[in-house]
Amino acid sequence: MKRKIITTADGSKTIQIEDWNEQYHSVHGAVQEAYHVFIRNGLSLFQNRQLSVLEIGFGTGLNALITLLESGKRGLDITYKGVEAFPVALEELEQLDYRSALDAEGSEPYFWHMHQTSWGQSHPISANFSLLKQQIDFREISDIDLFDLIYFDAFGARVQPELWTEEIFAIMFASMKENGVLVTYSAKGSVRRAMQAVGFVVERLPGPPGKREMLRGLKVS
Prior knowledge:
The strands form 2 sheets. An 8-stranded mixed β-sheet has the order 6-7-5-4-8-9-11-10. It contains 7 helices and 11 strands. The chain is α/β, with parallel strands linked by helices. The protein has a single domain, classed as Rossmann fold. Helices cover 28% and strands 30% of the residues.
């Protein structure tokens, strides 16, 4: 499928899949969306502890990079697992220039370390952040009671509805620890119902720029 790099409304870049008219991040702001959905409404719930994070749709690595940069501010020691069936080419990653978009001096070595480490093995990226990348289908995730926080950042249900089903969310639910949290940019009623059907307590929250709402699911007893 034809792909191109586009600039989003906050000046940060993302990848657009032209055949789908779908982007890896919001056209209203890639960095803004990442911070709003995954940091403010996910990572910020945890402070001064060890944390296990699963990202569904590792993609460009933007969410992982921001999480690494935020981890030190929040006293977090993070083990991070990113699942991606179709890794992004290094040639595309070079054009995204997230160091400039994040205005984070020294972030670029972390970004490239994340992308250049081997798949299927855990690697330390910084003193308090380790990364395991897995190139598998989301249905192949078999972890049980492992994750405190899940970033559910798959392509939208409009183009890949099979990734937003009860089957997928049951896998997510099983992989989470008690009191675990799942955050996603989606606010579709079908997604909320699928999450509720497998046991999540679901909250509607204000969405990032360009979206009225987003969803957060909690695994509670």
